[in-house]
Specification:
Blueprint lengths: L2 E5 L4 H12 L3 E6 L2 H13 L4 E6 L8 H12 L4 E4 L7 H6 L1 H29 L3 E5 L12 H22 L4 E7 L19 H14 L3 E4 L3 H10 L2 H4 L5
Parallel strand pairs: 1-2, 1-4, 2-3, 4-5, 5-6, 6-7
Helix pairs in contact: 1-7, 3-5, 5-6
This protein binds NADP nicotinamide-adenine-dinucleotide phosphate.
């Protein structure tokens, strides 16, 4: 039986992923800031087949609370097979340009909090010498674009951190998986006009579980974002400055 921890468990992508693990009979430990939703999701996951569902409340920006929650997770489960970090916000880029406070808060939610959680969890995984740490970054982290470079820079920090952590923990049998979704139809993107490039949380969840099972390092979801981002990354700066993305 797999033991799975999900931080940001009320996210649409996280919930869809939790359902897949529940159907396998996994033991789940859910962490999120909305306690009422955690109760509802936990009840649903039990019906869907999860052996046990535990949960704890955490605002990820409350860094001093991280150690307590991580302690609670390992005390409850003993060890962790898969940890998925899924929390995030999509900041208003214009607000981030006019308010340093908003910009720093959004960077903390999408970047610093994840790095803090990974730092604390890494030593636990290192000690148990097995498991998968899966982090939802974003294609937005592959190149800063004027439409969302605050979010993109936070995700870039997460992707770079995950790369270094992967190299370190691979020596002790722990896999670090970086997940880079493109556009996904979730509450985060509620106000966006949807088109052909948009994916549903269910499809992303299947991709996450498959990549974790297969010991992948970095996965673009859906796969076609890999060639798209290769092109975007290779646009020369003199051209990039003239276009609007
Ligand atoms: N949707 C996309 O197009 C897309 C694309 C690429 C990457 N991603 C990434 O995918 C992940 C999941 O996002 P989603 O699309 O599933 O969006 P979502 O349904 O809006 O989920 C975002 C989650 O983050 C949680 N969260 C935000 N701030 C938090 C905080 N301070 N403390 C604890 N939890 C906090 C939210 O909790 P509350 O319910 O309490 O607000 C919510 O559960 C995120 O990392 C996101 O950046 C999404």
């Amino acid at each position: 039986m797999q033991k799975v921890v999900i931080i940001g468990a009320t996210s649409a992508i996280a919930e869809a992923t939790a359902r897949l693990y529940a159907a396998r009979g996994a033991q789940l430990f859910l962490v999120a800031r909305n306690a009422a939703r955690l109760d509802d999701i936990s009840a649903d996951l039990r019906v869907r087949g999860s052996q046990d569902v535990f949960h704890a409340s955490l605002d990820v920006n409350d860094l001093h609370e991280h150690a307590r929650v991580i302690n609670q997770i390992w005390t409850t489960l003993g060890h962790v097979d898969v940890a998925l970090l899924a929390h995030g916000t999509l900041p208003d880029q214009v607000q981030c340009e006019t308010s340093v406070d908003v910009a720093m808060k959004e960077f903390a939610t999408n970047g610093t909090s994840t790095i803090a959680l990974l730092t604390a969890m890494a030593s636990r995984f290192e000690a148990q010498r097995k498991g998968v740490i899966a982090i939802i970054s974003s294609v937005a982290g592959d190149r800063g674009r004027q439409s969302n470079y605050l979010y993109g820079s936070a995700k870039a920090a997460v992707s770079a951190f995950a790369s270094g952590l992967r190299q370190r923990l691979s020596k002790v049998g722990v896999n670090v998986l970086t997940i880079k979704p493109g556009f996904v139809d979730t509450p985060m993107t509620r106000d966006f006009k949807k088109g052909a490039l948009w994916a549903k949380p269910d499809g992303i969840a299947h991709g996450i579980v498959r990549a974790a099972d297969r010991g992948r390092s970095v996965v673009y979801l859906p796969w076609f974002w890999l060639p798209i981002m290769l092109i975007i990354q290779h646009i020369p700066e003199f051209v990039f400055k003239r276009i609007k993305l």
